[in-house]
């Protein structure tokens, strides 16, 4: 049995998110007191935020539901652990201008909003100071000048906060700005919204993406096959019909997707939705997420089994991001990461 919610357009869903641990546990018919008190404490550091459509994919009465574990604050988040820090990827160093992160040689990250539809407890940006860091309209000229001074850059990545929480009008404005720069050929949009509010893939968004002169790639973020219900898959497949390439990145998380079978099922389900698995990230060591960490040996074993069970085109690359590196670091076969 799953939680039933009233289907609405995506804007109404965004303004009707569940933000209180009490309400989330009540809707899922869960009442353990220890869960609630820990959740209330941990949510004071990083708020609970989850769309009802995503809760609708969870099982009622299951405190270990893999989707619930990704969003329910936990008292273990309050523990301190060596090596788990607020800025694990050293992004403050790469922050050139408000909203701009220049970490890679040919790619350039733009964070246009600090808002997400969902708060993932393992998020490496859970401590990121978005509010001091968002580009305003008047910052565009500085961003343009910076881009024009970096001729190696041919791709812009709209990254989290989640760009698909923005209105289509605002997205259109930024896409138009980027299109005006000849050097930019590719626009990549990283978003978890199509997984947590599939109705976000609306007619206007598709029209905006398919009519751009830029080659558009949508990188979604799904960690578990239960996130991919029929509505979500049909919305994703619709993008492919319009020539929009959709890739998936997942994060390996203890208790959520730490079995080869779950990852194999995820890859096949993505393929049904015409999405290709892209990256399988090892957890970034962000403060508050230690309880999702699996350890190198277990990761190696899981990945070996995934490799043995899937055709090569459905195997996501196992990677870690290392602060200051110019690319993601491939990990398979390394047991000391
Ligand atoms: S949607 Fe992405 S940026 Fe937002 S909290 Fe989740 S992982 Fe972090």
How is this fold's topology laid out?
Elements: H1 10-14, H2 21-27, H3 33-43, H4 52-55, H5 66-71, H6 91-94, E1 95-97, E2 100-101, E3 107-110, H7 140-148, E4 155-158, H8 168-179, E5 186-191, H9 193-196, H10 203-210, E6 215-221, H11 230-241, E7 245-251, H12 260-272, E8 276-281, H13 296-309, E9 317-320, E10 329-330
Parallel strand pairs: 3-4, 4-5, 5-6, 6-7, 7-8, 8-9
Antiparallel strand pairs: 1-2, 2-3, 9-10
Helix pairs in contact: 12-13
Report on this model:
This protein has helices at 10-14, 21-27, 33-43, 52-55, 66-71, 91-94, 140-148, 168-179, 193-196, 203-210, 230-241, 260-272, 296-309, and strands at 95-97, 100-101, 107-110, 155-158, 186-191, 215-221, 245-251, 276-281, 317-320, 329-330. Helix 12 (260-272) crosses helix 13 (296-309). The longest helix has 14 residues, at 296-309. It is an alpha/beta fold. Bound molecules: iron/sulfur cluster. Iron/sulfur cluster binds at residues 116, 118-120, 123, 125, 160, 162, 192, 221. Iron/sulfur cluster is lined by residues 116, 118-120, 123, 125, 160, 162, 192, 221.
Based on Cα principal axes, name the global outline. globular
The average pLDDT value, as a whole number, equals: 93
Spatial separation of the terminal alpha carbons: 40 Å
Associated small molecules: iron/sulfur cluster
Q: What is the fold-level CATH name, i.e. the topology of the largest domain?
A: TIM Barrel
Give me the Rg, rounded. Answer: 19 Å
């Amino acid at each position: 049995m799953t939680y039933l919610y009233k289907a609405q357009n995506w804007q109404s869903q965004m303004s009707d998110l569940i933000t209180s641990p009490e309400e989330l546990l009540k809707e899922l018919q869960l009442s353990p007191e220890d869960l609630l008190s820990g959740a209330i404490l941990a949510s004071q550091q990083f708020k609970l935020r989850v769309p009802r459509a995503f809760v609708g994919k969870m099982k009622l009465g299951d405190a270990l539901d893999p989707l619930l574990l990704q969003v329910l604050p936990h008292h273990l988040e309050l523990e301190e652990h060596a090596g788990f820090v607020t800025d694990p990827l050293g992004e403050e160093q790469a922050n050139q201008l408000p909203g701009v992160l220049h970490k890679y040689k040919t790619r350039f990250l733009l964070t246009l909003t600090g808002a997400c539809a969902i708060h993932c407890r393992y998020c490496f940006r859970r401590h990121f100071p978005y509010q001091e860091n968002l580009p305003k309209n008047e910052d565009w000229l500085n961003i343009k000048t910076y881009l024009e001074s970096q001729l190696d850059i041919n791709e812009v990545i709209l990254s989290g906060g989640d760009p698909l929480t923005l209105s289509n009008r605002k997205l259109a404005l930024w896409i138009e700005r980027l299109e005006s720069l000849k050097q930019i050929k590719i626009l990549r949009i990283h978003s978890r919204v199509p997984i947590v509010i599939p109705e976000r893939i609306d007619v206007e968004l598709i029209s905006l993406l398919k009519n751009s002169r830029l080659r558009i790639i949508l990188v979604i973020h799904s960690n578990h096959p239960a996130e991919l219900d029929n509505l979500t898959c049909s919305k994703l497949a619709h993008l492919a019909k319009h020539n929009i390439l959709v890739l998936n990145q997942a994060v390996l998380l203890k208790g959520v997707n730490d079995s080869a079978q779950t990852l194999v099922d995820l890859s096949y389900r993505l393929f049904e939705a015409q999405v290709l698995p892209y990256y399988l990230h090892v957890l970034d060591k962000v403060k508050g997420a230690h309880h999702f960490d699996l350890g190198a040996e277990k990761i190696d074993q899981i990945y070996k089994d995934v490799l043995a069970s899937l055709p090569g085109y459905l195997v996501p690359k196992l990677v870690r991001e290392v602060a200051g590196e110019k690319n993601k670091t491939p990990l398979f076969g390394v047991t000391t990461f």
